[in-house]
Amino acid sequence: MNTRTAGVRARSSHHRRRTLVGGSALVLSAAFALTGCVSGNAVEEGALEGTILTDGSSTVAPLTDAARDLFAATQPDVEIKVSVTGTTAGFRAFCDGTTDIANASRAITDDEIAACDEGGVDYTEIVVANDGITVILNPANDWATDLTVEQLATVWSPESEGKVTTWSQIDPSFPDEPLTLFGPGVDSGTLDFFTAAITGEEDAIRGDYSASEDDNSTVEGVSKNLGATGFLGLSYVEENEGAIVAASIDGVAPTSDTVQDGSYSPLSRPVFIYVKNSAYADRPDVRAFVDFYVDNALDIAARALFVPLTNDQVELAQEELATLH
């Protein structure tokens, strides 16, 4: 698989790394990685209260929303706030201690690791699902249903700004339809991943597109404009069936199978939550929610229309957990 498959990566003050993957029946992995031990204590239904603050990726927000809604059935007095400011902004809030959990559509960067160090925030990274960044089209677009990586680079490269303005400039067989572009804003992890994969350099993208940290804006823009295209997480395509369609890349359509096996390349990826270790250790509400999120990751992914973790990812987590005893 061409995407990173590491799952739970615990960070202490010595930057100790783990390579576990969260998933069904893996609640112990989260508990061990975060605290160094497993309590094994069940939480009585309805016994908890508190407010858990999460922020970050618009892609991962639906997953955390689904986890919150399912968790509320057993702990209705725990309020879980899911803010959407983009992965990068979410890490800023997380590393300065504002939030308990960061929702991230990419892995934390070295600069963000340093910021968490400076803020005194030790954390654990947990992969909660897989995703395919999806190039979307208006349903009436019948010419660009299969695009190459090279064509996508022509569309989105900084050099194309103000110059590539019609579809016929991307491929002479395409109509002379005006090209209208929508996509995530500068704080988006999806933008970081997409540009690294397509234009060859993170954040290298033309500036003349409609940018928003709310992926629903991209959906709306593409759905209303014949010549529009954009990119976002696969779950938004499934949630908006009929309003937008997904293009194939080099002959491969984004599906659960092609994302899991990596053949939908180069835009398959894992998505993450990052948990503040002190919040997990000291607050029963945070600990119970994270345990629930990890233990029910497959069900949560299905509810949020995400690609679930693979068997190999779950097996890797179990193997790595065994080495910690």
Question: What features would you highlight for this structure?
Answer:
325 residues; alpha/beta; D-Maltodextrin-Binding Protein, domain 2; two-stranded parallel ribbon; 36% helix; elongated; PBP_domain; transport; Phosphate-binding protein; phosphate transport
Please render the helix and strand layout as text.
Elements: E1 9-10, H1 27-35, E2 50-56, H2 61-72, E3 78-82, H3 87-95, E4 101-104, H4 110-119, E5 123-137, E6 146-147, H5 149-156, E7 180-183, H6 189-198, E8 210-211, H7 215-223, E9 228-233, H8 234-239, E10 245-246, E11 248-249, H9 256-261, E12 268-276, H10 277-282, H11 284-295, H12 297-303, H13 311-322
Parallel strand pairs: 2-3, 2-4, 6-11, 7-8, 7-9
Antiparallel strand pairs: 1-5, 4-12, 5-9, 5-10, 5-12
Helix pairs in contact: 1-11, 2-12, 3-4
Protein name: Phosphate-binding protein
Organism: Microbacterium aoyamense
Family: Belongs to the PstS family.
